[in-house]
C-alpha cells in the first residue's frame, strides 16, 4: 500500500506559490516556459513552427462541426489558464501545438531519447497494461483524449477494439478528428467532460486516462473515478498514466524549474497531495497496482 504525499506544501512550494500569485511574475514565468519549450523543440528536430503553420492553414469548420456539442456546459476549473495559454484548452492555438508540445516535453524523460521520448513513454504504459490485462478489451474509452495521440496508441495496441475518445475541448477534438481521417482510423469522438460523459452504464471493458489528473482539482478527479466505475462492465479495467509525485526528480527539482512548471499547471499541488489509491478504492474498484513506467511517471491499474 502506498501513502499519500504530505498535503501541506513544503517551504519551496509555498515560496513558488507566493511568487505565482503576483500576476506579472506569473505571466513572465509562463512566457519563459513557452519560449524554452519552442527552442527545445526546434533543437531536437521537432518542427514546431512548421507543423503549427500547416495546421493553421486548414479550414477547420468541417472537423469542428462534426464533433462539437454547442450545448455543453464547461466546469469552472476548465477556464483556468493551462500550459501558458490564458484561455486554457479552449483555443485553436493550444490544439495546434498539442502534438509538438508532447514530443518536446517528453524528449527529456530518458537520456538521448529526443523526439522518441513521447512514443517511448506511451509504449511503457501499454507494456504494463498488456502485462496486467490478460483478456483483450472489446470496447475502450480514452478519457481526455486531447488531439488523439493516446487514442491512436490504444488503437495500435488493440486494433480490433471499438474505441471512443472523449475530451472537453472542441478544438482538441477537431484536430483529433482531422488526424483520424488522415490516418484512416475509425474512432468515435465525443465532446464531453470526463466526469460526465453521458455514455451508457457498463459499456466498456477498458477506460484509459493518459496525463490528465495533474491538470485537475481533487474533486473533479474523484468524480472521474466514479464515472469510470459506472462505465465499466464487470471485470473491466480502469487505467491511468500520469506524473509520479514520489519520483525523486520532483523532490529535487530546482525552485526556478518548479516555478516554471507550476506557472503552467494550476492544480499540481492538489494532484501531488491526492491519495489516489484510496480515492480509486472509494470509487468502487479493487485496490490498484501502481507501477513506475518512467523516471517521473507511474501507471495505475484498477479492476472492477
Description:
This protein is of the alpha/beta class and 304 residues long. It has a single domain (11-303), classed as Vaccinia Virus protein VP39 (Rossmann fold, 3-Layer(aba) Sandwich), CATH 3.40.50.150. It contains 13 helices and 7 strands. It has helices at residues 11-20, 23-43, 48-56, 61-67, 92-105, 117-132, 149-157, 170-183, 218-231, 248-251, 255-264, 268-273, 276-282, and strands at 139-143, 162-167, 188-191, 204-210, 232-243, 289-294, 297-303. It has a 7-stranded mixed β-sheet with strand order 3-2-1-4-5-7-6. Helix 8 links the parallel strand 2 and strand 3 (188-191). 40% of the residues are buried.
- Note the main sheet: 7 strands, mixed
Number of helices: 13
The best one-word shape is globular
From the 3D coordinates, which CATH architecture would you assign?
3-Layer(aba) Sandwich
In total, how many beta strands? Answer: 7
CATH class: Alpha Beta
Quote the CATH topology: Rossmann fold
Termini gap: 18 Å
